[in-house]
Every structure is written in C-alpha cells, then in structure tokens.
Amino acid sequence: MRYRRAQMKWYFQSGILLCALLLAGCATPGGRTFDFGFAAARLPDIRGETHFTAAGPFYESAERKHDFRYLGVRPLFSRVSSPADARWSLDVLWPLAAARGWNDDFVWRFLLAYGMRYGDEQSERYRTWLLPVWFQGRTAAGEDYFAVFPLGGKICEFLGRDRISFVLFPLYARSVINEVRTTSILWPVGSRAGRCRRRLIVMIRRRVLGAAMAVVMTAGCGDDDDVSRPPADTARSEVS
C-alpha cells in the first residue's frame, strides 16, 4: 500500500509539471498572463520582462523584447542570452561547469579545467588549462606554449607575466614582463632581475650576524670607554 501511494503521488506531481509546461506553450504565442500559484505562472515585472515559472522554483523562463532571454531548470542548468549584444552564458550544475560567449569569443570551465577561444582569426589565440598542472595555448602574437607543472615548460600571459619558463620548479624559473627579465634559482632563495640580485639566505645571515655583533659590541662597551673615546667625527678631524 505504501509503495502504491508513493507511486500515485509521483504520478500526480509529474502530471502537474506536465500541465504547467503545456500551459506555458499555449500562453506564450498570445502573450497572455496567468497565475496558478505553485503550479505555473506567467507574469510581467516592472522592467518589462515576462517571467514564466512552473513547479515552484524548479523551472523559470523570462524574456524581454529582442534583448534578453533566460531559461532555467534548477538545479540542472540555466541559460541567459542577449541577442542584441551577442552575449550568452550557460551554467550546468553550478558551480560544476559554466560557459560564456560574446561576439566570437568563447570561454568554458569544468571544475579546474579552463579554456578560452578568441575570435581573432589571424592569431587563432586560445587557452586550454587544467589548473595547476597543464598549460597549453597560443598568444595574440601567434606564439605557442606548453607546460606541465612542476616538471617544466613555458606559460604565456599568466600571473601578470608575458612569459614564464621553468624546469623542476622551484629549481629554475625565468619570467619576462615587457623588457624586465627575472631569473630565479631555488625560488624564493635567489633571483636576479636586470642588475638587481636577491639572495634570501645571505641577507638573513648578514642581518642575524650583524645584529649579534651589535649586541656583543654594545655589551663590551662601558661608561669609561664612552668618555675616553672621542667621537668619530672628532677623531677624523684630528687625523686630518
């Protein structure tokens, strides 16, 4: 008996959803409005958009004359498009997957996989990344790149850099920003950008030893030494 009741309940709910969808199809051509509460409704809002809902929040569609369309079957997918601006977006089981498009450009994402196809036919610019492991693509200048992190390779247009090359990161890495080239060995221990060098271990060692020597010298100086010893400027003047 319980199984039959559950089955009848499922048939009843499915029938409501089917009727709502049929009502939507009948009402759309004539532009009529109606309101059946939870089952189905087709009503305009203050922005001039016509919203249609069915089975509560699970199905919704909206449109505005020639410049806006929305379709959502929650939680499966939702799609928004604007024919006037040549833009559209699609979400599937958000945030699992998403796609965007405008003019001739196209962007997609699935979990940590990311791709982009630009509409520039001359350079055929594109990106196919699987963060943070796989990087492949072509720049606007037509330069191809490929990298597998942390093994090695070359990545372009990433992290604000024009180009990043590395081998067994952080063992060796080299990046380029405009005319500035930075080479790193065991990053961030040592690096060189133009004439500037940075050695983290040496810097820490100098600061630690310098502070230790300053403490020793301060502890070894007494009041008598301070009185008997002339200032540095006076000593220089007497010698000169």
**Uncertain stretches:** 25-30, 201-205, 212-240
* General shape: elongated
Number of strands: 19
Gyration radius, rounded: 34 Å
Residue-averaged pLDDT, rounded? Answer: 75
Give the helices and strands as they follow along the chain.
HEEEEEEEEEEEEEEEEEEEHHH
Question: What labels would you give this structure?
Answer:
4 helices; alpha+beta; single chain; disordered C terminus
Explained architecture:
With 240 residues, this protein is α+β, with helices and mostly antiparallel strands. Helix content is 27%, strand content 42%. It has four helices and 19 strands. The chain has helices spanning 2-30, 200-220, 223-228, 232-239, and strands at residues 34-35, 40-44, 50-54, 59-64, 68-73, 77-82, 87-92, 97-102, 105-110, 113-117, 126-130, 134-138, 144-148, 152-158, 161-167, 172-177, 180-185, 190-193, 196-199. The chain has a 19-stranded antiparallel sheet. Strand 7 and strand 8 (97-102) form a beta hairpin. The protein is elongated and about 70 Å long. Mean pLDDT is 75; it is low at 25-30, 201-205 and 212-240.
